[in-house]
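Researcher: Go.
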Amino acid sequence: MQEKDMVNDILSMTKAGMTEYTRAIGEASDQGLRQTLQQMRNGDEQFQYSLYQIAEQKGYYQSAQSASQQELQQVKSQLTQGMNNMQ
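Model: Structure:
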């Protein structure tokens, strides 16, 4: 297996793991367990971002084009509106 394939596999697995941590956090009623899961998820997020930076530098991963400030504001407004509608 090539290094590029291994890096991309690890990135995918880490992202999937973060999804599972988030799901478990949402279902955990014990505050200590929630905190532990949050710390583990945060650690995985930091690891994933570091690995992503390495992959991008080596040309293994190409990120999407950056959004404009207007596009970012539009998404933020839509998310805020959606959250307000839920309350």
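Model: The longest helix spans residues 31-57.
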